Amino acid sequence: MNYFVRRPWDLPQSLITEETVYRDKPSRREFVKTLGLGGIGLSLSSLVGCQQATLEEIDQAGKVEAVPSYYPAKVNEAFEYGRPETDRRAAAEFCNFYEFSTSKEVFRYVEPFNPSPWEFTVDGLCNNPMKFDMDDVYKTFALEERAYRHRCVETWAMCVPWTGFVLADLLKLVEPMATAKYVHFETFMRPKEASQQVYDDFPWPYGEGLTIEEAMNPLTLMATGIYGQPLPKQHGAPIRLVTPWKYGFKGIKSIVKITLTDKQPATFWNTVNPLEYKFEANVEPLVPHPRWSQETEWMLGTYERYPSVIYNGYGDYVGGLYS
Ligand SMILES: Nc1nc2c(c(=O)[nH]1)N[C@H]1C(S)=C(S)[C@@H](COP(=O)(O)O)O[C@H]1N2
Ligand SMILES: [Mo]
User: How far apart are CA 159 and CA 149, in angstroms?
Assistant: First the structure.
């Protein structure tokens, strides 16, 4: 199947992933996406046709059941952004979650999504396959808060506090077999709640994968919260992956299935466009995306630009995996 075929009413791929240029007009925020051919500009907000939402509207749209006793979790002081933290609102109103929309204003489309109750399975090449609901998660794992940088392959970046636990703690419980070389993750398939899943122009359900060594790395988090609260819907409620040394698309949202396997799994973006989105997808500023440079990044909220850093600055943790 050729996933390059776009429905005519979709934003063209070049508008979604082309480097974003921002015109700073606080009263009328407008993202201008530059087309690859000769700089013809189109405003994303005018295509979506929406007014700017209030913070209350954004919070209401992404709202999930509260689990107050677990939040905020104890901060793990070992992690620092080295940059200012991203404004909570800036992160909540600019998301990637293609199940709901190819625009960034995902919060406008998540109302039908009901992430509670929630269950996910962990199985495949392991001796003790398990099933978890979110109660099990909260009772089994000690949550902590970590300040992580996030770098999207599209060159936007953010610094956000995730609440979660290390994936290694979960994998140890299922007792991986020696033959398990990869971990495969899958998002839900709910076309009644996620409007874009009705169309088969993308390889639903969204899938991602890590090598078993990457999955066991102490940086790799299963996140259940952000900014000291349970994940709002648009950030991937109720549980998602966070791998801060890789491009953001590896951080699969709203996970329902984790499978240990001996083969490199097919993944969403690698299936859509294998030349542009690699399985490994480590942040590597000197390896340009075929359509743009990866040498710099810009921060959500402030539009400040920084040089991008190999492994997003987490080389002390993960450099050894690739040497
Ligand atoms: N299921 C699913 N997970 C996903 C995506 C998606 O479209 N669907 N987008 C990815 C991309 S490209 C990025 S950059 C991050 C964005 O996370 P955020 O929107 O919470 O900032 O989620 C990733 N996880
Ligand atoms: Mo991304």
Answer: 4
Query: Cα-Cα-Cα-Cα dihedral of 239, 112, 207, 311, to 10°?
Result: -60
How confident is the model at residue 49, as a pLDDT? 53
Residue nearest to atom 15 of ligand 1 (CA): 248
pTM of the complete model: 0.88
Query: Are 119 and 107 in contact, with CB atoms under 8 Å apart?
Result: no
Q: Is residue 25 part of a domain?
A: no
The answer, yes or no, to whether any atom of ligand 1 lies below 6 A from the CB of 99, is yes
Query: How many domains does one find in the chain?
Result: 1
232 lines ligand 1 (CB under 6 A): no
**Would residue 195 count as lying in a domain?**
yes
What is the Å distance from ligand 1's center to 127 Cα? Answer: 31
Residue with tokens 């919070």: 59
* Residue 48 banded pLDDT, cuts 50, 70, 90: low
CATH number at residue 192: 3.90.420.10
Domain that holds residue 103: 52-321
